[in-house]
Design goal:
InterPro entries: Cyclin-like_dom, Cyclin-like_sf, Cyclin_N, Cyclin_Y. One of its GO terms (molecular function) is protein kinase binding. By secondary structure, the protein is mainly α. The protein contains eleven helices and six strands. The strands form three sheets. Strands 1-2 form a two-stranded antiparallel sheet. A two-stranded antiparallel ribbon has the order 3-4. Helix 4 crosses helix 5 and helix 6 crosses helix 10. The chain is elongated.
Length: 348
């Protein structure tokens, strides 16, 4: 038996007082004295007006590159800073290709396998490491947070040198660290791009910079979060403890918790922001002569492309026939799966 309203009578100092409790969410109720109870209505309105976490906008939304698709990425801007050094210009900027002529005696087709939907893993990780390198090299402050300090939370049992926060790491050292994590955890290239997005979102929200003293733990936290959110097969914290032998699960849990809090639990990455970071990484690679090598078209890849093309043509043919439109084509483009063909018999 369910009771929506329960009434209890209490005798206090010789007087009877009624106490009513309601379980149904009515907007307006009256108490024993006839006064209107506004609590239910206010509670209902507060729940109805509560925004979903994905709908909440940061105060600096118009200037945050990890959220706004039209704001320039931080790493690309910092890579343009000369900082007293003259960087090499891209080959495409100093060579006039109009005077060059390339000829080939064979019909070999070269393809760039790195696309926005399926980036090349090795090249993407190398570009992300280069972006982190420019973040450290051209940083604008030395502000740090305790959880990311490698002196307070070392990743290995080896003694951390006293000048660990002075010398900036080279690009190859950053690439080796990131590549080790990606290869051991079997992460994808998309995860590398999302890692960079989370990293720059942390810089914007927490107002911190990547320095020689904290870059490893910041990158580790970004990779940990990106692998859990965007990878099909998420990596557990204990798995990273097997990669980094001297780190504890409790330390990984605390790193993940504080990283999420600094991001204000905003782990959403729009497709437009992802595409912007991908193409900015390609621009960074071109500016620093990190080429995306094109590979010759193999027989297996050609057959796959031909099969995909034939499936698309059959789909278009089926749509034309379904809509009653006539489409002229050769018999080579007609398959038995889309068009019901009848054999014509000639009787003499």
């Amino acid at each position: 038996m369910f009771i929506d309203e329960s009434i209890c009578l209490l005798q206090i100092m010789g007087n009877w007082t009624s106490c009513c409790s309601y379980s149904s969410p009515l907007s307006r109720r009256k108490d024993a004295n006839g006064a209107v109870n506004e609590f239910a209505q206010e509670g209902e309105e507060s729940v109805g007006n509560l925004q979903h976490i994905s709908e909440r906008e940061h105060d600096d939304w118009n200037t945050d590159p990890s959220v706004h698709p039209k704001v320039a990425t931080i790493f690309l801007e910092r890579s343009k800073v000369e900082n007293g050094l003259t960087r090499k210009q891209s080959q495409s900027q100093i060579v006039d290709f109009r005077s060059l002529k390339k000829s080939s005696s064979c019909s070999t087709i070269y393809l760039d396998d790195s696309t926005v939907s399926q980036p090349n893993l090795k090249n993407t990780v190398k570009c992300v490491a280069l972006a982190i390198y420019y973040h450290i090299k051209n940083r604008t402050s030395e502000r740090q947070i305790e959880i990311f300090d490698e002196k307070l939370h070392p990743l290995t049992r080896d003694r951390v040198p006293d000048n660990y926060d002075v010398h900036s790491p080279e690009h190859r050292h950053i690439y080796k660290f990131v590549r080790t994590l990606f290869n051991a955890a079997q992460l994808t290239a998309e995860c590398a791009i999302i890692t960079l997005v989370y990293l720059e979102r942390l810089l914007t929200y927490a107002e911190v910079d990547i320095t020689p003293a904290n870059w490893k733990r910041i990158v580790l936290g970004a990779i940990l979060l990106a692998s859990k959110v965007w990878d099909d097969q998420a990596v557990w914290n204990v798995d990273y403890c097997q990669i980094l032998k001297d780190i504890t699960v409790e330390d990984m849990n605390e790193l993940e918790r504080q990283f999420l809090e600094m991001l204000q639990f905003n782990i959403n990455v729009p497709s437009s922001v992802y595409a912007k970071y991908y193409f900015d990484l390609r621009s960074l690679a071109e500016d620093n002569e990190l080429t995306f090598p094109a590979e010759p078209l193999s027989k297996e890849r050609a057959k796959k492309l031909e099969a995909m093309s034939r499936v698309f043509e059959d789909k278009i043919t089926a749509e034309f026939l379904k809509n009653g439109l006539k489409k002229w084509s050769s018999l080579d483009n007609v398959s038995s799966t889309t068009v019901a063909r009848k054999s014509v018999a000639i009787l003499s």
